[in-house]
Amino acid sequence: MSGRVIVGLSGGVDSAVAALLLKEQGWEVHGLFMSNWEEDDDGYCTAAQDFQDARAVARELGIPLHRASFAAEYRARVLQHFLAEHRAGRTPNPDVLCNREIKFGVALRHAQRLGAARFATGHYARILLEPTGPELHKARDAAKDQSYFLHAVAMEHLGRTLMPIGELEKGAVRARARQAGLPVFDKPDSTGICFVGERPFREFLGRFLADRPGPIESPDGERLGTHRGLAFYTLGQREGLGIGGHRGRAELPWFVARKDADRNALVVVQGHDHPLLFSSGLVSGPMHWLSAARSEPFACGVKVRYRQADQSARLEPRADGTALIRFEKPQRAVTPGQYAVVYEGDRCLGGAVIETIEASYIIRAALKAERSPS
Protein backbone atom coordinates (compact mmCIF):
# COMPACT_ATOMS: atom_id res chain seq x y z
CA MET A 1 0.00 0.00 0.00
CA SER A 2 1.08 3.60 -0.36
CA GLY A 3 -0.12 6.98 0.83
CA ARG A 4 -0.59 8.54 4.21
CA VAL A 5 -3.00 7.04 6.73
CA ILE A 6 -3.91 8.79 9.97
CA VAL A 7 -4.67 6.34 12.78
CA GLY A 8 -6.85 7.45 15.68
CA LEU A 9 -4.31 6.52 18.36
CA SER A 10 -6.17 6.36 21.67
CA GLY A 11 -3.40 5.04 23.91
CA GLY A 12 -4.95 1.55 23.95
CA VAL A 13 -3.74 -1.73 22.51
CA ASP A 14 -6.29 -1.95 19.67
CA SER A 15 -5.37 1.30 17.94
CA ALA A 16 -1.67 0.61 18.57
CA VAL A 17 -1.86 -2.69 16.70
CA ALA A 18 -3.93 -1.05 13.95
CA ALA A 19 -1.03 1.37 13.42
CA LEU A 20 1.50 -1.50 13.54
CA LEU A 21 -0.36 -3.52 10.90
CA LEU A 22 -0.74 -0.55 8.56
CA LYS A 23 2.96 0.28 8.85
CA GLU A 24 3.79 -3.33 7.97
CA GLN A 25 1.52 -3.02 4.91
CA GLY A 26 3.58 -0.10 3.61
CA TRP A 27 1.43 2.88 4.56
CA GLU A 28 2.96 6.16 5.70
CA VAL A 29 1.42 6.04 9.16
CA HIS A 30 0.73 9.04 11.39
CA GLY A 31 -1.11 8.94 14.70
CA LEU A 32 -3.83 11.32 15.88
CA PHE A 33 -4.69 11.58 19.56
CA MET A 34 -8.07 13.13 20.33
CA SER A 35 -8.69 14.65 23.77
CA ASN A 36 -12.33 15.61 23.67
CA TRP A 37 -13.24 15.76 27.34
CA GLU A 38 -11.32 18.43 29.21
CA GLU A 39 -12.94 18.33 32.64
CA ASP A 40 -10.45 16.22 34.56
CA ASP A 41 -11.41 17.66 37.93
CA ASP A 42 -12.84 14.44 39.32
CA GLY A 43 -10.08 11.95 38.58
CA TYR A 44 -12.10 9.76 36.21
CA CYS A 45 -10.93 11.11 32.86
CA THR A 46 -7.74 9.29 31.80
CA ALA A 47 -6.86 11.51 28.83
CA ALA A 48 -3.51 12.63 30.28
CA GLN A 49 -2.28 9.06 30.82
CA ASP A 50 -3.77 7.91 27.53
CA PHE A 51 -1.81 10.61 25.69
CA GLN A 52 1.42 9.47 27.32
CA ASP A 53 0.64 5.89 26.27
CA ALA A 54 -0.08 7.05 22.71
CA ARG A 55 3.26 8.92 22.67
CA ALA A 56 5.07 5.79 23.84
CA VAL A 57 3.43 3.74 21.07
CA ALA A 58 4.30 6.34 18.44
CA ARG A 59 7.93 6.38 19.60
CA GLU A 60 8.14 2.59 19.44
CA LEU A 61 6.65 2.52 15.94
CA GLY A 62 8.66 5.53 14.77
CA ILE A 63 5.64 7.48 13.56
CA PRO A 64 4.59 11.13 14.03
CA LEU A 65 1.84 11.82 16.53
CA HIS A 66 -0.59 14.72 16.12
CA ARG A 67 -2.88 15.92 18.90
CA ALA A 68 -6.25 17.61 18.54
CA SER A 69 -9.13 18.58 20.80
CA PHE A 70 -12.68 18.43 19.54
CA ALA A 71 -14.15 19.16 22.96
CA ALA A 72 -16.43 21.93 21.67
CA GLU A 73 -17.80 19.68 18.94
CA TYR A 74 -18.27 16.84 21.41
CA ARG A 75 -20.28 19.04 23.76
CA ALA A 76 -22.43 20.44 20.97
CA ARG A 77 -23.01 17.27 18.95
CA VAL A 78 -22.90 14.46 21.50
CA LEU A 79 -23.24 15.66 25.10
CA GLN A 80 -26.16 18.04 24.49
CA HIS A 81 -28.15 15.34 22.68
CA PHE A 82 -27.25 12.86 25.45
CA LEU A 83 -28.60 15.20 28.13
CA ALA A 84 -31.71 16.18 26.15
CA GLU A 85 -32.64 12.53 25.68
CA HIS A 86 -32.23 11.81 29.39
CA ARG A 87 -34.35 14.85 30.26
CA ALA A 88 -37.07 13.38 28.05
CA GLY A 89 -36.93 10.11 30.00
CA ARG A 90 -35.17 8.19 27.22
CA THR A 91 -31.87 6.30 27.32
CA PRO A 92 -29.46 7.41 24.58
CA ASN A 93 -26.28 5.69 23.42
CA PRO A 94 -23.54 8.36 23.21
CA ASP A 95 -21.01 6.02 21.59
CA VAL A 96 -23.10 5.82 18.41
CA LEU A 97 -23.20 9.62 18.09
CA CYS A 98 -19.54 9.91 19.09
CA ASN A 99 -18.56 7.66 16.19
CA ARG A 100 -20.77 9.44 13.67
CA GLU A 101 -20.08 13.01 14.72
CA ILE A 102 -16.58 12.97 16.19
CA LYS A 103 -14.40 10.00 15.15
CA PHE A 104 -15.81 9.63 11.64
CA GLY A 105 -16.90 13.24 11.36
CA VAL A 106 -14.65 16.05 12.55
CA ALA A 107 -11.65 13.76 13.21
CA LEU A 108 -11.81 12.24 9.73
CA ARG A 109 -11.97 15.71 8.19
CA HIS A 110 -9.01 16.76 10.36
CA ALA A 111 -7.08 13.73 9.11
CA GLN A 112 -7.76 14.79 5.54
CA ARG A 113 -6.38 18.26 6.31
CA LEU A 114 -3.24 16.50 7.55
CA GLY A 115 -2.85 14.95 4.11
CA ALA A 116 -4.34 11.53 4.80
CA ALA A 117 -5.54 9.32 1.98
CA ARG A 118 -7.28 7.17 4.59
CA PHE A 119 -8.36 7.38 8.23
CA ALA A 120 -7.96 4.28 10.42
CA THR A 121 -9.17 3.14 13.83
CA GLY A 122 -8.82 0.21 16.19
CA HIS A 123 -12.48 -0.80 15.93
CA TYR A 124 -13.45 -4.45 15.83
CA ALA A 125 -15.39 -4.44 12.56
CA ARG A 126 -14.67 -5.01 8.87
CA ILE A 127 -15.20 -2.71 5.91
CA LEU A 128 -15.45 -4.47 2.56
CA LEU A 129 -15.11 -2.31 -0.53
CA GLU A 130 -17.50 -3.80 -3.07
CA PRO A 131 -18.46 -2.55 -6.56
CA THR A 132 -21.72 -1.25 -5.08
CA GLY A 133 -19.89 0.64 -2.34
CA PRO A 134 -18.46 0.04 1.14
CA GLU A 135 -20.10 -2.58 3.32
CA LEU A 136 -19.89 -2.79 7.11
CA HIS A 137 -19.46 -6.33 8.42
CA LYS A 138 -19.04 -7.83 11.87
CA ALA A 139 -15.56 -8.48 13.23
CA ARG A 140 -14.11 -11.99 13.14
CA ASP A 141 -14.09 -11.89 16.95
CA ALA A 142 -17.81 -12.05 17.69
CA ALA A 143 -17.25 -11.24 21.37
CA LYS A 144 -15.57 -7.92 20.50
CA ASP A 145 -17.60 -6.90 17.43
CA GLN A 146 -18.35 -3.15 17.43
CA SER A 147 -20.44 -2.86 14.26
CA TYR A 148 -23.44 -1.96 16.45
CA PHE A 149 -21.73 1.33 17.37
CA LEU A 150 -20.78 2.06 13.74
CA HIS A 151 -24.15 1.63 12.01
CA ALA A 152 -24.87 5.39 11.89
CA VAL A 153 -21.59 6.39 10.17
CA ALA A 154 -22.08 7.75 6.64
CA MET A 155 -21.26 5.26 3.88
CA GLU A 156 -18.86 7.66 2.19
CA HIS A 157 -16.94 8.04 5.46
CA LEU A 158 -16.69 4.27 5.88
CA GLY A 159 -15.29 4.17 2.35
CA ARG A 160 -12.35 6.34 3.47
CA THR A 161 -11.70 4.28 6.61
CA LEU A 162 -9.52 1.27 7.44
CA MET A 163 -10.16 -1.07 10.39
CA PRO A 164 -7.24 -3.51 10.20
CA ILE A 165 -7.85 -5.45 13.42
CA GLY A 166 -11.35 -6.49 12.38
CA GLU A 167 -9.91 -9.74 11.04
CA LEU A 168 -8.20 -10.64 14.35
CA GLU A 169 -9.24 -12.15 17.65
CA LYS A 170 -8.55 -10.01 20.72
CA GLY A 171 -5.96 -12.48 21.98
CA ALA A 172 -4.08 -12.21 18.70
CA VAL A 173 -4.12 -8.41 18.94
CA ARG A 174 -2.48 -8.50 22.37
CA ALA A 175 0.02 -11.09 21.14
CA ARG A 176 1.04 -8.89 18.18
CA ALA A 177 1.47 -5.93 20.53
CA ARG A 178 3.65 -7.98 22.87
CA GLN A 179 5.80 -9.33 20.03
CA ALA A 180 6.31 -5.81 18.66
CA GLY A 181 7.30 -4.46 22.07
CA LEU A 182 4.37 -2.05 22.25
CA PRO A 183 4.13 -0.81 25.87
CA VAL A 184 0.31 -1.05 25.98
CA PHE A 185 0.10 -4.78 25.16
CA ASP A 186 -1.52 -5.56 28.53
CA LYS A 187 -3.41 -2.30 29.11
CA PRO A 188 -7.03 -3.02 30.19
CA ASP A 189 -9.82 -2.15 27.78
CA SER A 190 -11.80 1.04 28.39
CA THR A 191 -15.51 0.52 29.07
CA GLY A 192 -16.66 4.02 29.99
CA ILE A 193 -18.65 6.65 28.09
CA CYS A 194 -16.88 7.63 24.87
CA PHE A 195 -14.08 10.14 25.77
CA VAL A 196 -15.57 10.77 29.22
CA GLY A 197 -14.13 7.72 30.96
CA GLU A 198 -15.33 5.20 33.50
CA ARG A 199 -17.18 6.91 36.33
CA PRO A 200 -20.33 6.49 38.47
CA PHE A 201 -23.02 7.17 35.88
CA ARG A 202 -25.64 8.79 38.14
CA GLU A 203 -23.03 11.04 39.68
CA PHE A 204 -21.95 12.19 36.21
CA LEU A 205 -25.52 12.74 35.02
CA GLY A 206 -26.34 14.62 38.22
CA ARG A 207 -23.74 17.26 37.33
CA PHE A 208 -25.98 18.35 34.45
CA LEU A 209 -29.55 17.34 35.35
CA ALA A 210 -31.56 18.37 38.40
CA ASP A 211 -33.44 15.82 40.48
CA ARG A 212 -37.16 15.58 39.75
CA PRO A 213 -38.59 13.14 42.30
CA GLY A 214 -41.79 11.20 41.72
CA PRO A 215 -43.52 7.99 42.75
CA ILE A 216 -42.26 4.46 42.20
CA GLU A 217 -45.33 2.32 41.57
CA SER A 218 -46.34 -1.24 40.87
CA PRO A 219 -48.42 -1.86 37.71
CA ASP A 220 -51.60 -1.82 39.80
CA GLY A 221 -50.79 1.64 41.16
CA GLU A 222 -49.43 0.79 44.63
CA ARG A 223 -46.84 3.35 45.71
CA LEU A 224 -43.59 1.62 46.66
CA GLY A 225 -41.17 4.49 47.03
CA THR A 226 -39.81 7.68 45.48
CA HIS A 227 -37.48 7.96 42.51
CA ARG A 228 -34.84 10.63 41.95
CA GLY A 229 -36.02 11.56 38.47
CA LEU A 230 -36.93 9.50 35.40
CA ALA A 231 -33.71 10.58 33.71
CA PHE A 232 -31.67 8.51 36.15
CA TYR A 233 -33.29 5.15 35.34
CA THR A 234 -33.54 2.85 32.33
CA LEU A 235 -35.85 0.01 31.41
CA GLY A 236 -34.79 -3.32 32.88
CA GLN A 237 -32.72 -1.65 35.61
CA ARG A 238 -32.50 -3.45 38.95
CA GLU A 239 -29.88 -1.62 41.00
CA GLY A 240 -30.46 1.65 42.80
CA LEU A 241 -34.25 1.58 43.11
CA GLY A 242 -34.17 1.87 46.89
CA ILE A 243 -37.22 -0.32 47.49
CA GLY A 244 -37.08 -3.50 49.53
CA GLY A 245 -39.68 -6.08 50.41
CA HIS A 246 -43.32 -5.09 50.81
CA ARG A 247 -45.96 -6.75 52.92
CA GLY A 248 -47.88 -9.42 51.03
CA ARG A 249 -45.38 -9.56 48.15
CA ALA A 250 -42.87 -12.25 47.30
CA GLU A 251 -39.21 -11.49 48.02
CA LEU A 252 -38.26 -11.05 44.38
CA PRO A 253 -36.04 -8.29 42.98
CA TRP A 254 -37.66 -5.24 41.38
CA PHE A 255 -37.00 -4.03 37.83
CA VAL A 256 -37.94 -0.87 35.94
CA ALA A 257 -40.70 -1.76 33.44
CA ARG A 258 -41.99 1.61 32.27
CA LYS A 259 -41.61 5.37 32.62
CA ASP A 260 -44.85 7.35 32.77
CA ALA A 261 -43.61 10.81 31.81
CA ASP A 262 -47.07 12.42 32.07
CA ARG A 263 -47.28 11.53 35.77
CA ASN A 264 -43.51 11.46 36.40
CA ALA A 265 -43.98 7.90 37.69
CA LEU A 266 -41.59 4.97 37.53
CA VAL A 267 -43.39 1.63 37.13
CA VAL A 268 -41.56 -1.42 38.49
CA VAL A 269 -42.25 -5.15 38.50
CA GLN A 270 -40.90 -8.14 40.39
CA GLY A 271 -38.86 -10.82 38.68
CA HIS A 272 -36.29 -10.71 35.91
CA ASP A 273 -38.68 -12.28 33.40
CA HIS A 274 -41.90 -10.47 34.31
CA PRO A 275 -44.10 -10.19 31.17
CA LEU A 276 -44.23 -6.40 31.41
CA LEU A 277 -40.50 -6.28 30.69
CA PHE A 278 -41.00 -7.78 27.22
CA SER A 279 -41.93 -6.26 23.86
CA SER A 280 -42.98 -7.94 20.64
CA GLY A 281 -41.86 -5.09 18.40
CA LEU A 282 -40.85 -1.47 18.04
CA VAL A 283 -41.23 1.56 15.83
CA SER A 284 -37.95 3.20 14.87
CA GLY A 285 -36.99 6.69 13.87
CA PRO A 286 -35.74 7.32 10.30
CA MET A 287 -33.58 4.43 9.15
CA HIS A 288 -29.94 5.06 8.28
CA TRP A 289 -29.18 2.53 5.56
CA LEU A 290 -25.70 1.18 4.85
CA SER A 291 -27.14 -0.63 1.85
CA ALA A 292 -29.71 0.24 -0.77
CA ALA A 293 -32.75 1.44 1.17
CA ARG A 294 -35.38 -1.28 1.44
CA SER A 295 -39.00 -0.61 0.51
CA GLU A 296 -40.51 -4.06 1.09
CA PRO A 297 -40.77 -6.08 4.33
CA PHE A 298 -37.94 -8.56 4.87
CA ALA A 299 -36.58 -10.99 7.45
CA CYS A 300 -33.42 -9.95 9.26
CA GLY A 301 -31.46 -10.11 12.48
CA VAL A 302 -31.79 -7.18 14.91
CA LYS A 303 -29.83 -6.08 17.95
CA VAL A 304 -31.50 -3.66 20.37
CA ARG A 305 -28.39 -3.39 22.56
CA TYR A 306 -24.66 -3.99 22.28
CA ARG A 307 -23.45 -7.57 22.85
CA GLN A 308 -26.92 -8.96 22.22
CA ALA A 309 -27.10 -11.89 19.82
CA ASP A 310 -28.98 -11.12 16.60
CA GLN A 311 -32.70 -11.59 17.16
CA SER A 312 -34.85 -12.93 14.34
CA ALA A 313 -37.28 -10.24 13.21
CA ARG A 314 -39.28 -8.86 10.30
CA LEU A 315 -38.68 -5.26 9.29
CA GLU A 316 -41.43 -3.32 7.53
CA PRO A 317 -40.16 -0.06 5.97
CA ARG A 318 -42.65 2.80 6.20
CA ALA A 319 -43.27 5.63 3.75
CA ASP A 320 -41.83 8.25 6.12
CA GLY A 321 -38.47 6.46 6.31
CA THR A 322 -39.11 4.87 9.70
CA ALA A 323 -39.59 1.15 10.26
CA LEU A 324 -41.81 -1.25 12.16
CA ILE A 325 -39.80 -4.17 13.53
CA ARG A 326 -41.55 -7.24 14.92
CA PHE A 327 -39.54 -9.88 16.75
CA GLU A 328 -39.96 -13.61 16.32
CA LYS A 329 -39.74 -13.86 20.12
CA PRO A 330 -40.59 -11.03 22.57
CA GLN A 331 -37.50 -9.10 23.66
CA ARG A 332 -36.68 -7.94 27.18
CA ALA A 333 -36.18 -4.26 28.07
CA VAL A 334 -36.39 -2.75 24.59
CA THR A 335 -35.56 0.87 25.39
CA PRO A 336 -36.60 4.09 23.60
CA GLY A 337 -33.54 6.19 22.83
CA GLN A 338 -31.33 3.17 22.22
CA TYR A 339 -30.74 1.82 18.71
CA ALA A 340 -32.15 -1.06 16.71
CA VAL A 341 -29.38 -2.26 14.38
CA VAL A 342 -30.21 -4.51 11.45
CA TYR A 343 -28.14 -7.38 10.01
CA GLU A 344 -28.20 -9.89 7.20
CA GLY A 345 -25.73 -12.50 8.31
CA ASP A 346 -22.49 -10.70 9.14
CA ARG A 347 -23.38 -7.58 7.16
CA CYS A 348 -24.77 -4.55 9.00
CA LEU A 349 -27.52 -2.99 6.89
CA GLY A 350 -27.96 0.07 9.12
CA GLY A 351 -30.22 1.01 11.97
CA ALA A 352 -32.25 3.68 13.73
CA VAL A 353 -33.15 5.00 17.14
CA ILE A 354 -35.93 3.16 18.98
CA GLU A 355 -38.90 5.52 19.30
CA THR A 356 -41.72 3.42 20.74
CA ILE A 357 -42.15 -0.18 21.76
CA GLU A 358 -45.03 -2.49 20.96
CA ALA A 359 -46.50 -4.60 23.77
CA SER A 360 -47.17 -8.22 22.93
CA TYR A 361 -50.43 -10.01 23.71
CA ILE A 362 -48.60 -11.56 26.68
CA ILE A 363 -47.87 -8.10 28.08
CA ARG A 364 -51.40 -6.80 27.49
CA ALA A 365 -52.89 -9.84 29.18
CA ALA A 366 -50.57 -9.46 32.16
CA LEU A 367 -51.35 -5.78 32.52
CA LYS A 368 -55.10 -6.45 32.37
CA ALA A 369 -54.79 -9.17 35.00
CA GLU A 370 -52.79 -6.97 37.40
CA ARG A 371 -55.33 -4.16 37.13
CA SER A 372 -58.39 -6.37 37.55
CA PRO A 373 -59.97 -6.44 41.02
CA SER A 374 -59.26 -9.67 42.91
Q: Which secondary structure elements does this structure contain, and how are they paired or packed?
A:
Blueprint: E1 4-8, H1 13-24, E2 28-34, H2 47-61, E3 65-68, H3 71-87, H4 94-113, E4 118-120, E5 125-130, E6 133-138, H5 147-150, H6 155-158, E7 161-162, H7 170-179, H8 201-206, E8 214-217, E9 223-227, E10 254-260, E11 265-270, E12 278-284, E13 288-289, E14 298-303, E15 311-317, E16 323-332, E17 339-344, E18 347-358, H9 361-371
Parallel strand pairs: 1-2, 1-4, 2-3, 4-7, 8-11
Antiparallel strand pairs: 5-6, 6-18, 8-9, 10-11, 12-16, 12-18, 13-18, 14-15, 14-17, 15-16, 17-18
Please describe what this structure looks like.
With 374 residues, the protein is of the alpha+beta class. The chain folds into three domains: 4-201, 3-Layer(aba) Sandwich (Rossmann fold); 212-272, Adenine nucleotide alpha hydrolases-like domains (SH3 type barrels); 276-364, Translation factors (Elongation Factor Tu (Ef-tu), domain 3), CATH 2.40.30.10. The chain has nine helices and 18 strands. The protein has helices at residues 13-24, 47-61, 71-87, 94-113, 147-150, 155-158, 170-179, 201-206, 361-371, and strands at residues 4-8, 28-34, 65-68, 118-120, 125-130, 133-138, 161-162, 214-217, 223-227, 254-260, 265-270, 278-284, 288-289, 298-303, 311-317, 323-332, 339-344, 347-358. The strands form three sheets. Strands 12-16-15-14-17-18 form a six-stranded antiparallel beta barrel. Helix 1 (13-24) runs parallel beside helix 2, helix 1 packs across helix 7 (170-179) and helix 3 (71-87) runs antiparallel to helix 4. The longest helix is centred in the N-terminal third of the chain and has 20 residues, at 94-113. It starts with a strand and ends with a helix. Mean pLDDT is 90; it is low at 361-367.
